[in-house]
Structures are given as C-alpha cells and as structure tokens.
Fold this protein.
Amino acid sequence: MLKTRVITAIILLGILLAVLFVLPPVYLGGFFLLLVMAAAWEWSRLILPNHPLAAYFYACGCLLIIAGLMLLHQPLGPFALMFAASIFWLLIAPLFLSRGLKINFQKWTALYFALGLVLLPATWFSVMFLREMGLLFLLSTMALVWIADIGAYFVGKAFGQRRLAAEISPGKSIEGAVGGLVLCYVYAGLCTYYLVPTVTLFGVWAYRFGWLPMFLMVTALTCLSIFGDLFESQLKRLAGVKDSSHLLPGHGGVLDRVDALIPVMPIAVLLVGFL
C-alpha cells in the first residue's frame, strides 16, 4: 500500500510540476478542470450511489457551469459563485459539522446535489484567479493547506490524545490540528520575511495590515482547511464509504486529496478583495 501510495504521489507531483512550470498557463486550467470533473463524479456517487450513470452527467454539469460562465465574459458570475461558496464555508458548513452524523442524508440529498454544483466550480475559478495573481501566489496559498495537513498528521501521530471530531473523523486530534496551525505560522512567517511582499497572500497582508492580522488570516485559512477535510469525511460517513473513489491508487479519490483546498481557495480570493 505504501509503495503504491508513493508511486501515485510521484506521478501526480510530476504532472503538476510540468503543468505549472513547463507548459503554457492554459494547461493549468485544463488540469484543474479534470480534477474538478473527477471530484464532481465522486461527489455524485456519494450522494446518489444507486444512480452511477448520473455521476457522469453531474461532472458534465460542473463543466457546463464553468464553460457557461466563461463564455459570458462577465466577472460577476464567477465572483458570485466564489462568494456563495465562501458564505457556505464561513456560516453554514460549521452548522453541518456540528450535527455530526445526525443528519437525514436522504432528506438533504437535493441540497448536497446543489452544493457540489456551487463549491466545485467555485474552486476552479478560485485557482484560476489566484494564478493570475502569480504562480508563486497560487502555490504558496495551496502549500498552506498541504503544510497544515502534514503538520496535523505527524503531530497527531506523535502527541494526539484528544479527538477533534470523534464521530466524523476519529483519526484527527486537537493536538494534531494545533501542530498543523503552528507549522503554518512558521511557514507564513518565513514567506513574509524572506520573499517580496507582493508575491504571496501572507506577504501582502502583513505589508498592508501588519503581522498580527496576517497571522489571524492564516489561522482562519488553516481552520477552513480542517472544515473542508471534516466536511468530506462527514459526507463519506453519511454515504457509508471509506474513500470517495479508487481513482488514485493508494490515495482513494480526488475528493480525498483536494477536500481541504475546496474551502480555502474561494476564501483566499475573498481575502485578496480586501487588499
């Protein structure tokens, strides 16, 4: 399992690096569009497990939303989508998570169906917007999510005692979450101190508002990455499955790998709007 996991990770990393640094920017949009469609396919399979064919139409639905908004050539549409996604993650997702597994999944299937058609396209538009801010701007923001996840995993393994959300995700601990947050503070501080302020979200916020607001922003984004992880874990448990799919050998599905990015990307765009 570990060998398969490592091989898959190396292949994915190689593709991502080639898309980012070798190929023209349009390929980045295509690569993330494939990820979004795969995630949409998995999302539909989770909420409509008895309708496997619907998953392909659902993925195409996300594609049509993205294509339609792009063809309109009006920034208001994508920004409205990203704003709606941000409102969900900030105000509504915590309510979902507070319910644990005490949710009538069948009753709320239509809501989950609609949510995917907002959250997943919003993630794609967010990635494209941050890429326009600069390659390093996008990478540094995404890296915050990965560092939070890595820190939480290793600190949780070493010191985890108290469960963060026992019903939804028993493997996650409060100690791990705090460890991931501390590591994010170190990472954002190093980016701010050593890099030109305008090339990262952290640097711009520290330059514009000061270090304390920047660290508060990092706290918010790190917490939101945890929300994304827990929300997908909750969705899988309600659906009665361990992984969103088996598209990525050793890693589960695409949703399992991008769940923490889904809330962070649109809210990062929202934070850029304050600059």
